[in-house]
Amino acid sequence: MNRRRQVQTVSNKPRNLRRRIAVAGALLIAWTANVAAQEGSPDTGPVPPSMKFWEFVQPIPLDKTGDSPWSDFVLTPEVFDGARTDLADLRLFDAAGKELPFSRRELRTKDAMTEAKSTPFNESQGADGSSQVSLDLGEARIEHNEVQIRTPGSGFRRQAVVEGSDDGEQWSKLADKPLLNFRDVDQRLTVDTVQYSSCRFRYVRLTVHQDPQTDRAPVKIETAIVRRRVQVPGEGVTRTVPIGPREATRTDRGAGSRWMIDLGGQNVPCERLIVTIDDPEFARDYTIEAGGPAGSRESFWRIGDGTWQRRAGESGKVMVATFQETKAARLRLYVTDHSNPPLNISSVQVAAPARQIVFARPADLPGPLTLYFGYPKAEAPNYDFARNLPETLKPAPIRLNAGARAANPAFEPEPLPLTERLPWLIYVVLGIAVAVLGALIANLARAAIRVSDARDAVPTS
């Protein structure tokens, strides 16, 4: 009887041991999963209110006054060199430490449109199958220069006539142009806007004729929108940049020359190269490549090519290369010389649309301001001020000049996760876990042997 109790007691020990091993294994798996998640996806977290993680600062003196409620300044290459590529880490503070909302704009030449409110009337059809409608733009007599006309269907060419009038009786023709809608396998051509010289006619009359090839009934004018389209001029930044010595090389067309051009920082935008050449006449093919800073592994890529030519008597003419805007640290200029002597390049300039920072400027704004940048984990601020700021600012903002970039005196590198600060720790912990599991398995094996031995020792009856 005592032996049976002993066997039962020994047999219960492996069960308790297995429970302990299961609990320990579950805890170990949960811990390992947590460590792996931290290792693979570091926690970025929200942007901290303190600016200690921003690496660079740039002073913005409030040294100019005016009657505009806004001020602005243009970003310099030093900012592109230290900020995020998308400039989402820019922050602006006044001298009292208060964050200032701002709007970041790219001053590229673009079209601005203003839609005129209109009331349609006298919708009718002509004897020739045309459709006609008149629009009343109101007594304000606003300026307009285009109308968008939408008609149903596809695969058509319909002639549209636009007329204007001050009294609705005497009409002057403003435009007579076709409306197009054609679709191919992978292309589509749609022309539904008619432009004309700017005018202030109160009434606009539209007449749309049938396409004799596709239309069998008068075409309904679904919508007609009168607009004023104006071109908003942009603002470019042109800088003289250093150019390295000429290097003899071979291009893909033959013998040539190569020059390295330093843009003064990383991720500097450029879309135009202006080269001053002293030679009286020439005709050379060129290629322009963009790349990263010196010493980086980033390879160069082609961004533009063409031909520069100067005939006798055209001295003083600069050579210009325009390409799609790119962000780079250096440019590489190749010129194919063949058997001609190399060109004498005296200066190089790069140009790109200005990046403007606009902010509200109350009379009591404490200065100087400070621009912070250089925090890769920062999120875009998305200020309401930027979304509500008018497209055209009148009066123009007071232009300020940014100072030189400096290191943030309060800068502290953001602490790395524990697994990055002590990369060996995870291997030590995993080694200990393996040793513990091995010990548990050994104990389980010994307990199983004891149970088996105890059962063998019990006499059978």
Question: What would your notes on this structure say?
Answer:
With 461 residues, this protein is α+β, with helices and mostly antiparallel strands. It has helices spanning 2-40, 77-82, 384-388, 418-421, 423-457; strands spanning 56-60, 70-74, 91-93, 102-106, 110-115, 119-125, 131-136, 144-150, 156-165, 172-183, 188-191, 193-199, 203-208, 223-232, 236-241, 247-250, 255-262, 268-277, 282-291, 301-310, 319-328, 330-336, 345-353, 355-360, 369-373, 398-399, 406-407. Strands 6-7-13-9-10-11 form a 6-stranded antiparallel sheet, with no helix packed on it. A 5-stranded antiparallel sheet has the order 16-17-22-19-20, with no helix packed on it. Helix 1 (2-40) runs antiparallel to helix 5. The protein is extended.
Please describe the structure with a list of short key phrases separated by commas or semicolons.
461 residues; alpha+beta; Jelly Rolls; 4 domains; six-stranded antiparallel beta sheet; five-stranded antiparallel beta sheet; disordered N terminus
